[in-house]
Protein: ArsR family transcriptional regulator
Organism: Saccharothrix carnea
Amino acid sequence: MADDPLSTTFAALADPTRRAILARLAEGAATVKELSEPFAMSGPAVSKHLRVLERAGLITRGRDAQWRPCTLDATPLREVTEWADGFRRFWDDSHRRLDAYLERMKEQEDDH
Amino acid sequence: MADDPLSTTFAALADPTRRAILARLAEGAATVKELSEPFAMSGPAVSKHLRVLERAGLITRGRDAQWRPCTLDATPLREVTEWADGFRRFWDDSHRRLDAYLERMKEQEDDH
DNA sequence: CAGTTAGATAACCGAGTGGTTAGGTACCCA
DNA sequence: TGGGTACCTAACCACTCGGTTATCTAACTG
Protein backbone atom coordinates (compact mmCIF):
# COMPACT_ATOMS: atom_id res chain seq x y z
CA MET A 1 0.00 0.00 0.00
CA ALA A 2 1.20 3.53 -0.76
CA ASP A 3 2.05 5.62 2.28
CA ASP A 4 0.69 9.03 1.34
CA PRO A 5 -2.00 10.25 3.76
CA LEU A 6 -4.99 9.88 1.43
CA SER A 7 -4.02 6.34 0.44
CA THR A 8 -3.54 5.39 4.08
CA THR A 9 -6.97 6.74 4.94
CA PHE A 10 -8.70 4.97 2.04
CA ALA A 11 -6.93 1.71 2.88
CA ALA A 12 -8.01 1.99 6.51
CA LEU A 13 -11.61 2.47 5.40
CA ALA A 14 -11.52 -0.51 3.02
CA ASP A 15 -12.64 -2.93 5.71
CA PRO A 16 -16.16 -3.32 7.11
CA THR A 17 -14.86 -4.17 10.60
CA ARG A 18 -12.88 -0.94 10.77
CA ARG A 19 -15.81 1.11 9.45
CA ALA A 20 -18.04 -0.50 12.09
CA ILE A 21 -15.51 0.45 14.75
CA LEU A 22 -15.58 4.07 13.56
CA ALA A 23 -19.39 4.02 13.60
CA ARG A 24 -19.32 2.76 17.16
CA LEU A 25 -16.83 5.46 18.17
CA ALA A 26 -19.11 8.10 16.70
CA GLU A 27 -21.33 7.40 19.71
CA GLY A 28 -18.47 8.06 22.12
CA ALA A 29 -15.14 6.73 23.33
CA ALA A 30 -14.82 3.01 24.04
CA THR A 31 -12.31 0.50 25.34
CA VAL A 32 -10.76 -2.18 23.17
CA LYS A 33 -12.90 -4.79 24.91
CA GLU A 34 -16.10 -2.90 24.19
CA LEU A 35 -15.12 -2.45 20.57
CA SER A 36 -14.41 -6.18 20.27
CA GLU A 37 -17.84 -7.29 21.54
CA PRO A 38 -19.76 -7.15 18.23
CA PHE A 39 -17.16 -9.12 16.30
CA ALA A 40 -16.51 -12.83 16.14
CA MET A 41 -12.76 -12.43 16.11
CA SER A 42 -9.86 -12.60 18.54
CA GLY A 43 -8.53 -9.71 20.57
CA PRO A 44 -5.29 -9.40 18.62
CA ALA A 45 -7.28 -9.11 15.39
CA VAL A 46 -9.15 -6.10 16.78
CA SER A 47 -5.85 -4.71 18.09
CA LYS A 48 -4.46 -4.82 14.57
CA HIS A 49 -7.50 -3.04 13.16
CA LEU A 50 -7.13 -0.34 15.78
CA ARG A 51 -3.49 0.11 14.92
CA VAL A 52 -4.40 0.60 11.26
CA LEU A 53 -6.99 3.19 12.25
CA GLU A 54 -4.49 4.90 14.53
CA ARG A 55 -1.80 5.05 11.84
CA ALA A 56 -4.40 6.63 9.55
CA GLY A 57 -5.12 9.23 12.22
CA LEU A 58 -8.75 8.17 12.45
CA ILE A 59 -8.57 7.33 16.15
CA THR A 60 -6.44 8.34 19.12
CA ARG A 61 -5.76 6.12 22.08
CA GLY A 62 -5.58 7.35 25.66
CA ARG A 63 -4.78 5.58 28.87
CA ASP A 64 -6.90 4.93 31.96
CA ALA A 65 -5.38 2.29 34.27
CA GLN A 66 -5.47 -1.00 32.35
CA TRP A 67 -7.88 0.40 29.78
CA ARG A 68 -6.85 2.11 26.57
CA PRO A 69 -9.91 4.16 25.55
CA CYS A 70 -10.21 4.94 21.84
CA THR A 71 -11.69 8.18 20.54
CA LEU A 72 -12.71 9.11 17.03
CA ASP A 73 -10.78 11.69 15.02
CA ALA A 74 -12.66 12.34 11.81
CA THR A 75 -10.29 14.92 10.33
CA PRO A 76 -8.94 12.54 7.67
CA LEU A 77 -12.53 11.92 6.58
CA ARG A 78 -12.80 15.57 5.62
CA GLU A 79 -9.92 15.11 3.19
CA VAL A 80 -11.76 12.10 1.78
CA THR A 81 -14.95 14.03 1.07
CA GLU A 82 -12.98 16.97 -0.27
CA TRP A 83 -11.25 14.66 -2.73
CA ALA A 84 -14.47 12.96 -3.76
CA ASP A 85 -16.19 16.33 -4.14
CA GLY A 86 -13.91 16.98 -7.10
CA PHE A 87 -15.99 14.37 -8.91
CA ARG A 88 -19.37 15.55 -7.68
CA ARG A 89 -20.33 16.94 -11.10
CA PHE A 90 -20.28 13.38 -12.42
CA TRP A 91 -23.13 12.23 -10.26
CA ASP A 92 -24.90 15.31 -8.93
CA ASP A 93 -27.64 16.45 -11.30
CA SER A 94 -27.63 20.04 -10.11
CA HIS A 95 -23.88 20.23 -10.65
CA ARG A 96 -24.30 18.64 -14.06
CA ARG A 97 -26.77 21.37 -14.99
CA LEU A 98 -24.35 24.03 -13.74
CA ASP A 99 -21.60 22.44 -15.84
CA ALA A 100 -23.80 22.55 -18.91
CA TYR A 101 -24.64 26.20 -18.20
CA LEU A 102 -20.97 27.15 -17.89
CA GLU A 103 -20.27 25.24 -21.07
CA ARG A 104 -22.90 27.29 -22.93
CA MET A 105 -21.44 30.51 -21.51
CA LYS A 106 -18.00 29.47 -22.71
CA GLU A 107 -19.34 28.76 -26.19
CA GLN A 108 -20.93 32.21 -26.30
CA GLU A 109 -17.55 33.72 -25.37
CA ASP A 110 -15.93 31.77 -28.18
CA ASP A 111 -18.45 33.20 -30.66
CA HIS A 112 -17.04 36.69 -30.14
CA MET B 1 -9.83 -7.56 1.10
CA ALA B 2 -13.56 -7.69 1.93
CA ASP B 3 -15.83 -7.93 -1.08
CA ASP B 4 -18.70 -5.65 -0.11
CA PRO B 5 -19.15 -2.73 -2.51
CA LEU B 6 -17.97 0.03 -0.18
CA SER B 7 -14.81 -1.87 0.79
CA THR B 8 -14.07 -2.59 -2.86
CA THR B 9 -14.43 1.11 -3.69
CA PHE B 10 -12.24 2.26 -0.81
CA ALA B 11 -9.58 -0.32 -1.66
CA ALA B 12 -9.58 0.83 -5.29
CA LEU B 13 -9.06 4.43 -4.16
CA ALA B 14 -6.21 3.51 -1.80
CA ASP B 15 -3.59 3.97 -4.52
CA PRO B 16 -2.29 7.26 -5.91
CA THR B 17 -1.84 5.79 -9.40
CA ARG B 18 -5.48 4.77 -9.55
CA ARG B 19 -6.66 8.13 -8.20
CA ALA B 20 -4.53 9.88 -10.82
CA ILE B 21 -6.15 7.71 -13.50
CA LEU B 22 -9.61 8.74 -12.27
CA ALA B 23 -8.55 12.40 -12.28
CA ARG B 24 -7.37 12.02 -15.87
CA LEU B 25 -10.65 10.35 -16.87
CA ALA B 26 -12.58 13.26 -15.35
CA GLU B 27 -11.35 15.25 -18.37
CA GLY B 28 -12.75 12.70 -20.79
CA ALA B 29 -12.36 9.13 -22.02
CA ALA B 30 -8.86 7.84 -22.75
CA THR B 31 -7.13 4.76 -24.09
CA VAL B 32 -4.94 2.52 -21.96
CA LYS B 33 -1.87 3.92 -23.70
CA GLU B 34 -2.84 7.51 -22.95
CA LEU B 35 -3.50 6.61 -19.32
CA SER B 36 -0.09 4.93 -19.06
CA GLU B 37 1.91 7.94 -20.32
CA PRO B 38 2.33 9.80 -17.00
CA PHE B 39 3.53 6.72 -15.12
CA ALA B 40 6.92 5.07 -15.01
CA MET B 41 5.51 1.56 -15.04
CA SER B 42 4.89 -1.20 -17.52
CA GLY B 43 1.71 -1.68 -19.51
CA PRO B 44 0.55 -4.75 -17.58
CA ALA B 45 0.87 -2.81 -14.32
CA VAL B 46 -1.53 -0.17 -15.63
CA SER B 47 -3.78 -2.94 -16.95
CA LYS B 48 -4.03 -4.35 -13.44
CA HIS B 49 -4.90 -0.98 -11.98
CA LEU B 50 -7.63 -0.57 -14.58
CA ARG B 51 -9.01 -3.98 -13.71
CA VAL B 52 -9.22 -2.99 -10.05
CA LEU B 53 -11.03 0.21 -11.02
CA GLU B 54 -13.35 -1.73 -13.30
CA ARG B 55 -14.22 -4.30 -10.61
CA ALA B 56 -15.02 -1.38 -8.30
CA GLY B 57 -17.38 0.02 -10.95
CA LEU B 58 -15.38 3.24 -11.17
CA ILE B 59 -14.64 2.88 -14.88
CA THR B 60 -16.19 1.11 -17.85
CA ARG B 61 -14.23 -0.10 -20.82
CA GLY B 62 -15.49 0.09 -24.39
CA ARG B 63 -14.00 -1.11 -27.62
CA ASP B 64 -12.88 0.78 -30.70
CA ALA B 65 -10.76 -1.34 -33.05
CA GLN B 66 -7.55 -2.13 -31.17
CA TRP B 67 -8.24 0.52 -28.56
CA ARG B 68 -10.10 -0.04 -25.31
CA PRO B 69 -11.29 3.42 -24.29
CA CYS B 70 -11.93 3.89 -20.56
CA THR B 71 -14.65 6.16 -19.23
CA LEU B 72 -15.26 7.36 -15.71
CA ASP B 73 -18.25 6.16 -13.70
CA ALA B 74 -18.38 8.12 -10.46
CA THR B 75 -21.48 6.51 -8.97
CA PRO B 76 -19.51 4.56 -6.34
CA LEU B 77 -17.94 7.86 -5.26
CA ARG B 78 -21.37 9.08 -4.29
CA GLU B 79 -21.70 6.18 -1.87
CA VAL B 80 -18.30 7.13 -0.47
CA THR B 81 -19.31 10.72 0.25
CA GLU B 82 -22.67 9.60 1.61
CA TRP B 83 -20.90 7.28 4.03
CA ALA B 84 -18.40 9.95 5.09
CA ASP B 85 -21.20 12.49 5.50
CA GLY B 86 -22.42 10.43 8.45
CA PHE B 87 -19.33 11.74 10.25
CA ARG B 88 -19.57 15.32 9.06
CA ARG B 89 -20.62 16.60 12.49
CA PHE B 90 -17.19 15.56 13.80
CA TRP B 91 -15.31 17.98 11.62
CA ASP B 92 -17.81 20.56 10.35
CA ASP B 93 -18.06 23.52 12.73
CA SER B 94 -21.53 24.51 11.65
CA HIS B 95 -22.73 20.96 12.21
CA ARG B 96 -20.98 20.90 15.55
CA ARG B 97 -22.84 24.07 16.59
CA LEU B 98 -26.13 22.50 15.47
CA ASP B 99 -25.32 19.41 17.51
CA ALA B 100 -24.63 21.53 20.58
CA TYR B 101 -27.91 23.40 20.03
CA LEU B 102 -29.89 20.17 19.79
CA GLU B 103 -28.14 18.93 22.89
CA ARG B 104 -29.22 22.03 24.82
CA MET B 105 -32.80 21.59 23.57
CA LYS B 106 -32.74 18.00 24.76
CA GLU B 107 -31.52 19.06 28.20
CA GLN B 108 -34.33 21.58 28.46
CA GLU B 109 -36.82 18.84 27.62
CA ASP B 110 -35.30 16.67 30.34
CA ASP B 111 -35.81 19.48 32.88
CA HIS B 112 -39.57 19.18 32.51
C1' DC C 1 1.48 -12.04 47.70
C1' DA C 2 -1.53 -14.69 44.06
C1' DG C 3 -5.02 -14.28 40.75
C1' DT C 4 -7.63 -11.80 37.27
C1' DT C 5 -8.43 -8.58 33.67
C1' DA C 6 -7.09 -5.44 29.62
C1' DG C 7 -4.33 -5.23 26.15
C1' DA C 8 -0.05 -5.62 23.20
C1' DT C 9 3.43 -8.38 20.86
C1' DA C 10 5.45 -12.28 18.23
C1' DA C 11 5.35 -15.85 15.10
C1' DC C 12 2.91 -17.99 11.76
C1' DC C 13 -0.40 -18.90 7.70
C1' DG C 14 -3.19 -18.37 3.36
C1' DA C 15 -4.66 -15.05 0.24
C1' DG C 16 -4.11 -10.88 -2.18
C1' DT C 17 -1.20 -6.71 -4.16
C1' DG C 18 1.81 -4.29 -7.07
C1' DG C 19 5.24 -4.77 -9.79
C1' DT C 20 8.11 -7.36 -13.39
C1' DT C 21 9.17 -10.03 -18.06
C1' DA C 22 7.64 -13.05 -21.73
C1' DG C 23 4.45 -14.25 -24.82
C1' DG C 24 -0.22 -14.18 -27.01
C1' DT C 25 -4.37 -11.92 -29.39
C1' DA C 26 -6.68 -8.57 -32.14
C1' DC C 27 -6.66 -5.02 -35.25
C1' DC C 28 -4.88 -1.70 -38.83
C1' DC C 29 -2.05 -0.70 -42.80
C1' DA C 30 1.47 -1.04 -46.67
C1' DT D 1 0.85 -11.37 -46.42
C1' DG D 2 3.78 -9.40 -43.24
C1' DG D 3 4.75 -5.94 -39.82
C1' DG D 4 3.54 -2.66 -36.34
C1' DT D 5 0.47 -1.15 -32.59
C1' DA D 6 -2.66 -1.78 -28.58
C1' DC D 7 -3.73 -4.52 -25.15
C1' DC D 8 -4.24 -8.73 -22.33
C1' DT D 9 -2.80 -13.07 -19.94
C1' DA D 10 0.47 -16.02 -17.53
C1' DA D 11 3.98 -16.84 -14.48
C1' DC D 12 6.76 -15.15 -11.12
C1' DC D 13 8.55 -12.21 -7.14
C1' DA D 14 8.64 -9.64 -2.69
C1' DC D 15 5.56 -7.75 0.28
C1' DT D 16 1.23 -6.76 2.79
C1' DC D 17 -3.22 -8.10 5.00
C1' DG D 18 -6.38 -10.23 7.94
C1' DG D 19 -6.72 -13.70 10.72
C1' DT D 20 -4.97 -17.27 14.22
C1' DT D 21 -2.59 -19.09 18.84
C1' DA D 22 0.73 -18.46 22.35
C1' DT D 23 3.04 -15.51 25.23
C1' DC D 24 4.02 -11.21 27.61
C1' DT D 25 3.22 -6.70 30.28
C1' DA D 26 0.59 -3.72 33.13
C1' DA D 27 -2.79 -2.69 36.21
C1' DC D 28 -6.40 -3.72 39.64
C1' DT D 29 -8.17 -6.82 43.58
C1' DG D 30 -8.55 -10.43 47.06
About this structure: Chain A has a mean pLDDT of 91. Residues 1, 31-33, 43-44, 47, 51, 65-68 of chain A lie near DNA strand C (CB under 10 Å from a C1'). The longest helix of chain A spans residues 93-111. The first strand of chain A starts at residue 59 and ends at 61.
